[in-house]
Amino acid sequence: MSARAIETAPAIALDIGATAIKIAAISRQGELLAVRRIATPSSPEPTIAAALDEIHGLANEVDLDPASVAGIGCSIAAFVTDRGRIVATAHLGEAWVAYELGDRLSASLPANYYFALDAPAPTLGEAYFGAGQGCRDFAYVTVSTGVGAGLFLNGAIYTGGLGWAGGVGHVIVDPEGERVCAGCGNRGCLETYAATQGILALARESIERHPESLMVRIAPAELTPRAIGDAALRGDVAARCVFETAGRYLGLGLTNLVDITSVQRIVIGGGVALAGDLLLEPAREVVRQRAFPPDHRKVEIVPAALGDLSGVYGAAAMVFNDIRINIESGN
Ligand SMILES: [Zn+2]
């Protein structure tokens, strides 16, 4: 392939999560040429087979030769080396540990591959194509089943010397907190208030105090952050209180984050963050009151721009900008 063809070729991007895999073709300008979503099979081999099938199907759909793309980027819910060896995963299952994802993919489909954990990957997506554009230093915070952050510092991903930078979900926001954190086993972590299970626990407490709440009419199995958000938008005071409380705790976590990193902007993504200002406004209020020095109170707290596609956009950004994330060296 000529240099000119490589310069203009799109990237194929994979985002392998615990519940869904997204496969996309993305142009260098950030145009989403095609995207597919499938459920994640329970072990590595069927996952790879399904992903390869979808890559070929998607390439057909947009008349693309998978062998002539600029590269294939892969975001995955696992600690992964830049060559695609899985080191650890809390979400995908033990069968993935030590799996040679890079070797397995290139044996079936030779290409220029890039790999990253699903915290730096969406951060890169927002950095190059979304709400982090034009920002040299920002944090991408995801609020969903857990809370985590990717740090983009000095114009590059920062993972830290030990590899875990951005674990904002486990900063202690309530030393007297009683709920045990499902992620780390401590008490009082930000996740126990602002992630999905934390929000649901707050909702159950709120329902007890407010039997008139619209939330009482929601079947327990259907009580989700989205359903609580809908009730809040319909004026339900108890539901608004849930997000008010979760948002204030999120604000404490973000205060710690900005005080330590001095980032200019915090981009918030993840399913719980779809509640928008219901969650973000109380968080901003706490940061405006608590951050120090006063310059930190001006940090912009904005919603992510790419929704659930920030991971595939980040995978494409790695390809186009030749970004290798080496978790063993801290950058
Ligand atoms: Zn924790």
Structural class call reads alpha/beta
Separation of the first and last Cα atoms:
31 Å
Ligand list: zinc ion
Strand tally is: 12
CATH-scheme architecture of the largest domain: 2-Layer Sandwich
Share of helix, binned: 25-40%
Q: The biggest beta sheet, please?
A: 5 strands, mixed
CATH homologous superfamily placement of the largest domain: ATPase, nucleotide binding domain
Query: Strands of the biggest beta sheet: in what spatial order?
Result: 3-2-1-4-7
Strand content: 15-25%
- How would you spell out the order of helices and strands? HEEEHEEEHEHEEEHHHHEHEH
Total domain count:
2
What does this structure look like?
With 331 residues, the chain is of the alpha/beta class. The protein folds into 2 domains: 3-117 and 310-321, ATPase, nucleotide binding domain (Nucleotidyltransferase, domain 5), CATH 3.30.420.40; 131-304, 2-Layer Sandwich (Nucleotidyltransferase, domain 5), CATH 3.30.420. The protein has helices at 3-8, 44-61, 101-108, 120-129, 191-194, 196-209, 225-233, 237-261, 277-290, 310-321; strands at 11-16, 20-26, 32-39, 71-76, 79-80, 86-88, 113-117, 138-143, 147-153, 156-158, 265-269, 300-303. Strands 3-2-1-4-7 form a 5-stranded mixed β-sheet, sandwiched between helices. The protein has a 5-stranded mixed β-sheet with strand order 10-9-8-11-12, with helices on both faces. Helix 4 crosses helix 10 (310-321), helix 7 crosses helix 8 (237-261) and helix 8 crosses helix 9. The mean pLDDT is 93. The structure holds zinc ion (ZN). Zinc ion binds next to loops. Zinc ion is lined by residues 170, 181, 183-184, 186, 189, 191.
